[in-house]
Each structure stands twice: as structure tokens, then as C-alpha cells.
UniProtKB/TrEMBL annotation:
Keywords noted in UniProt: Calcium, Cytoplasm, Membrane, Metal-binding, Repeat
UniProt subcellular location: Cytoplasm; Endomembrane system
GO molecular function, one term: metal ion binding
Entry GO CC: calpain complex; endomembrane system
Gene3D superfamilies: EF-hand (1.10.238.10)
Protein name: Calpain small subunit 1
Xref: InterPro entries: EF-hand-dom_pair (IPR011992)
PANTHER family: CALPAIN SMALL SUBUNIT 1-RELATED, CALPAIN, SMALL SUBUNIT 1 A-RELATED
Length: 76
């Protein structure tokens, strides 16, 4: 199916807590997500995944950032 949840076609696999954060951030009060917010969410997720993968040089699934690096990444 389409969307951001399990079984979605977006290419992202999200756990339930992250899915809830995205719904809280990008949905309307009736819990729908309009097209602009959906695209914005996908762009943000793709950027975050790509940035993380770039920083995870040893492919360990973890990265270590100082405060300035964190601010640069989180404000993208």
C-alpha cells in the first residue's frame, strides 16, 4: 500500500513510535496528511536516512555527533 507505515511503497520501514511522531508532526487535526505535508515528510525522511548512512562510515547502525554536528543534521 501507499503511505509511511508497514507495507508501504515509500521504501521506508518505520517502527510504531516513529510512525506516531510523524503523524503528530505532519497530519491535520483529523489525522489526514495532505499532499504537501506527505511530500515534505518523505523528503525529510530521505534526507535524514541519507545523512545517517553517510555518517555511519563503518555501517554499524550508530553514529556519534557533537552538539554542532547534531544541530547541523537536525536543522536540515
Amino acid at each position: 500500500g501507499s503511505g509511511l507505515g508497514p507495507g508501504s511503497d515509500s521504501g521506508f520501514s518505520l517502527n510504531n513510535p516513529l510512525h506516531q511522531v510523524l503523524v503528530a508532526r505532519y497530519s491535520e487535526p483529523d489525522l489526514t496528511v495532505d499532499f504537501d505535508n506527505f511530500v515534505g515528510c518523505l523528503v525529510r525522511l530521505e534526507t535524514m536516512f541519507n545523512t545517517f548512512n553517510t555518517l555511519d562510515k563503518d555501517d554499524s547502525g550508530t553514529v556519534e555527533l557533537n552538539i554542532m554536528e547534531w544541530l547541523n543534521v537536525s536543522l536540515l
